[in-house]
Amino acid sequence: MNELALVLNSGSSSVKFAVFRAVGSGWPLAARGNIEGIGTAPRMSVHDGAGNAMATPGTRAGVTDAAAALERVFEWLRSSFKDGRLVGVGHRVVHGGPRYAGPVIMTPQVLAELRELVPFAPLHQPYNLAGIEAVARYQPAVPQVACFDTSFHRTLPAVAKLLPLPADLRRDGLERYGFHGLSYEYIASVLPQIAPAIAPGRVIVAHLGNGASLCALRSGVSVENTFSFTALDGLCMGTRPGAIDPGAILYLFQKLQLSVTEVENILYEKSGLLGISGVSNDMRALLASAEPSAALAVEYFVYRAAKEVGALTAALGGLDALVFTAGIGENSAVIRSRICKACAWLGIELDEKANTASAACITREASPVSVWRIPTNEELMIARQTGRLLALSGRPS
To answer: What does the DSSP 8-state code read for residue 266?
Structure first.
């Protein structure tokens, strides 16, 4: 019987999942899918490891929350892998707080500790934990592993973790964390094979998508990033503003008399590319739009990214390579080109032909700083961490 590991990323309106075979060290992908529109118009789609569409159960009725969505996932899993046995479930959990520097096997005590971190990531953490609780109900005998987006950044030096607030306020975990760690850890893990010359050097990885950030790596270790205490800081994102003067937030409370809920909604759902453009939070739509506000949103996105590349280069004491990854970073040659041109002062010599062709290396051979396009794979990273913790990898099928 085949042993399977399930990877879950549970959100407020969607559940993304992937199934890996626990055979050998390669973790072959068996299927990847998602359920979107939870609570409104749910729809499920799944593709096998080769990208072919797979049959799915109906999702039009009854999928009102993540628990109901996961029930459909398990129903699909049982019907699609009759010769398979689920031996572990790995979850993406956004915040591990100051304690968790690596994945952890879920227990009631761990779950209670992670609930205390909900105020650190109010729009992500509750749904991540709801997924864990649902699996515990449907598959109580299957061990679960929490894999954290913050863990990879626990290597930040003390000065980089510091929030310059009074010490009595900082005692309860009020510090800079950093996110997208599963993506950055994956990139760091494959750099020695893809680009061995730069792997031990000073590298900035640009994870650019609806959520966007940069991470500074020295010898594959995170030493700085653009996120902070929450996933609101740093780069301009799809609906999040990135770095913003705290005084502007005070103004929303004091002058405009907005509530906490209203301000939270503005910062997480109505700002960033959507807020600037008034058109869309999707970079593809903005690039295709003739609206001046859409062009301004793209220009600001590029400006902030280039500005932060400069800041992280200073933190690293120089730069050997820049890596683009995630939805925009992997798929938009236009954005890669514009950011590279804005960073030409670093010595980047872009090869436009290679960039348009989405080659792995998109700079000229003589470029003092090389630039790369490397697809990320957070699901595989979670599968690896889950397998390592549960000792699944390498077991015979």
So the answer is: I
